[in-house]
Amino acid sequence: MTTNPPPQQSVATAQRLNDAMTRLRARLRTESGQHATGLTLTQLGVLASVVREGPVTAARLAALERVSAQSIAQSLAVLKAAGLVRSEPDAQDGRKKLMSADPSATELVEKLLAGRASFLARAIDRLVAPDERKDVEKAIELLERLATTELNDGGIGATA
Is pTM beyond 0.85 here? Predict the structure, then answer.
């Protein structure tokens, strides 16, 4: 089955959305103090997953982050060296290692998330009129749906 490419208006909207999200992510990294951690965006994503999901296997982390096992191993090596995560044998399957977050990692992730949320709350309070709040809620719902959709069409530039 062949599908038609999206209409030009959809492509333009998609590009505007991507550009806006890119700028917002950069602003959130700055406002939260993320740059001062010395960790990359990928490493911080892995760290947040360990904090949220841990104890967790590297394979599970790779699936959560949608990256390769090699990429997870590289990030985990940096996080271990920084003392933010540790590995322990799985009590139920000694062949597996479970990654756990150090309390300092939990504190760091919470601080970064709080910084992001604080900036967004202040920006919403300052820029979004009360009658526009429902529009923000609707936009969040749409973004959440976009983030979880599975198109299964082969990725970049796929039209089949």
Answer: no
